[in-house]
Amino acid sequence: MKRVNLSSGSKWEDIVGYSRAVKIGDTIEVSGTVSTDHSGEIVGEGDEYLQTKFILMKLENTLGQLGAKLENVVRTRIFCTNISNWEKIGKAHGEMFANIKPVTSMIEVSKLIDDKYLVEIEATAML
C-alpha cells in the first residue's frame, strides 16, 4: 500500500523523526496535536476549552489535506494535564464530534512538552 507522510514544516519533525500525519491505504493517523498556530504561538493559553477547540480545527485541516473529514475519525486520544477540567475538554470535543461519536480516551498526564499546553490530541481516521 502507498504511504503518504504529511509534514507540518515544524523543525521538530526532523529532529524527533515523525510526521504530522501518515496515510497508508484507507487509514490516517494524526500525531499528537497541541494548540499552536502557524507561527508557534499558543492559542487559548490557560483555557482547556479553547485549546481543545483549536486542536480539533487543526486536526480537521490536517485530515482535509489527506482527503478525509471529521466524519472519518474513528478514534481520538485526549491527553490533558488536569483531568478535573474534563468537562471543558469534553464540551469542545462534543461540539465537533456529537454526531460522529468516535471512540476516545481522556488521559491525565503529569506534563506535556510545554507547561502552557494543557491538552494534546491524537486521531485515527478511516476512509
Topology:
Elements: E1 3-6, H1 11-16, E2 21-24, E3 27-33, H2 48-65, E4 73-80, H3 86-97, E5 103-108, E6 119-126
Parallel strand pairs: 4-5
Antiparallel strand pairs: 1-2, 2-3, 3-6, 4-6
Helix pairs in contact: 2-3
Give a structural overview.
- This protein has helices at residues 11-16, 48-65, 86-97, and strands at 3-6, 21-24, 27-33, 73-80, 103-108, 119-126.
- It is an alpha+beta fold and 127 residues long.
- It has a six-stranded mixed beta sheet, with helices on one face.
- A hairpin with a 2-residue loop joins β2 (21-24) and β3 (27-33).
- The longest helix has 18 residues, at 48-65.
- The radius of gyration is 14 Å and the shape is globular.
Q: In DSSP terms, counting alpha (H) and pi (I) runs of 4 or more, how many helices? A: 3
Distance between the termini: 14 Å
By secondary-structure content and strand pairing, the structural class works out as: alpha+beta
Q: Helix coverage percent of residues?
A: 25-40%
**Largest β sheet strand count, sense and barrel closure:** 6 strands, mixed
Structural Rg? 14 Å
Give a short synopsis of this structure.
The protein has 127 residues and is an alpha+beta fold.
Features:
127 residues; alpha+beta; 6-stranded mixed sheet; 3 helices; 6 strands; globular
